[in-house]
Design goal:
- With 329 residues, the chain is of the alpha+beta class.
- It has helices spanning 34-39, 41-56, 88-97, 155-161, 179-184, 243-250, 279-290; strands at residues 2-6, 13-17, 23-26, 64-65, 81-84, 112-114, 127-129, 136-137, 140-146, 164-171, 174-175, 197-198, 202-203, 222-225, 228-231, 261-263, 303-307, 320-326.
- The strands form four sheets. It has a six-stranded mixed β-sheet, covered by helices on one side. Strands 4-3-2-1-13 form a five-stranded antiparallel β-sheet. A five-stranded mixed β-sheet has the order 7-18-17-14-15, with no helix packed on it.
- A hairpin with a 5-residue loop joins β2 (13-17) and β3 (23-26).
- α3 (88-97) packs across α7 and α4 packs across α6 (243-250).
- The longest helix is centred in the first third of the chain and has 16 residues, at 41-56.
- The N and C termini lie far apart (39 Å).
Length: 329
């Protein structure tokens, strides 16, 4: 099943989308918003699935063309958004570039930060920034949306209960030149992590077939900058902490409520031929090889596209396709 939120109100209007991403049907008679559906998932998900089956069979009288440009983020705002750094080789590379050793605990204890969740960007929204000097960077990631997860849950609990309800793609924009000053204060990210963008649709794990192993999404994550291929690392490879581990880590000292989003962090492989999912990683590799980075951060007018394709070459989530824009407000 594939779900999206069309623009309308602060929380969008829930629609069910067909597997080809060509048509959708309103779901307001079941759940006005995706958050409403997640709050009562056990009862409402089967009804939404019935809409999906009818849509796939071309039996829905309310079907209409699906246009990603009409979409907000699947959850236009969420109660909780936490992003991890599950590809530890990426963290290792960052530290290597600046000559720092990586603590052994990084391989056993996930890194996460809690981001702003009150103002997500839709998949084709411009990404507004106040200055190019901030070091504008994409971060192509995978994320999951969970139901209620009790405090103290283990990864096995998360898997057994089926706490992961939906999967989607992320562009977790970063402002690299603001990060060092913020981290130096010892209190984490804030201004350096602006509004995050998500794919047009969120997909139930069973829709992913063999590409979903219960904890990882085992397909390449493609990204392009200004129409040129930037990277396609394998999301299921070199992921030190899978999603049940990340979810359980986040629930160690608190309950996670339905609609919580958990991100993977920048998808990254040891095989550098796969390319990168953020400019910072490419710049790090250039620093190591050449003594200085050569690739600039993004400028106003630049465009980034992030997408994942199935084994038949069809888009699974639709594309995040955004232009970097000057914020004039």
């Amino acid at each position: 099943m594939k779900l999206a939120s069309l623009r309308g109100g602060r929380d969008g209007r829930l629609v069910v989308v067909d597997s080809a991403l060509s048509h959708c049907v309103p779901a307001g008679g079941i759940a006005p918003t995706l958050q409403d559906a997640l709050d009562d998932w056990a009862r409402l998900a089967p009804r939404l699935h019935d809409l999906y089956v009818a849509l796939e069979a071309h039996q829905s009288k309310e079907a209409r063309p699906f246009d990603p440009r009409e979409c907000a983020a699947p959850l236009p705002r969420a109660f909780h958004w936490v992003d991890g750094s599950a590809y530890v080789n990426h963290v290792e590379l960052v530290r290597k570039a600046r000559g720092a050793e990586m603590p052994p605990s990084f391989w056993t204890d996930p890194l996460v930060y809690q981001g702003g969740s009150d103002d997500f960007l839709g998949p084709t929204d411009d990404a507004p920034f106040g200055s190019e000097d901030w070091g504008i960077d994409l971060e192509a990631e995978v994320a999951v949306i969970v139901g209620d997860v009790p405090m103290g849950s283990t990864p096995d609990d998360v898997r057994r209960r089926g706490d992961i309800k939906l999967v989607m793609l992320v562009n977790d924009w970063s402002l690299r030149n603001l990060i060092p000053g913020e981290l130096a204060k010892g209190f984490g990210f804030y201004q350096s992590k602006p509004a995050t963008a998500f794919s047009p649709v969120a997909v139930t794990p069973e829709e992913l077939g063999d590409a979903w192993d219960g904890g990882k999404l085992c397909l390449p994550l493609h990204s392009w900058i200004n129409g040129e291929k930037f990277g396609a690392p394998e999301a299921g490879v070199d992921m030190t902490f899978d999603f049940p581990v990340l979810v359980a880590h986040c629930a160690r000292t608190r309950n996670l409520r339905a609609g919580t989003i958990v991100g993977s962090g920048t998808v990254s492989n040891y095989d550098r031929a796969k390319g990168s999912s953020c400019l910072a990683e490419k710049r790090m590799l250039e620093q190591i090889e050449h003594g200085a980075p050569r690739t600039p951060f993004m400028k106003f007018g630049d465009r980034v596209r992030i997408e994942m394709l199935d084994a038949r070459g069809r888009s699974i989530f639709g594309a995040i396709d955004q232009q970097v824009a000057r914020n004039y407000r």
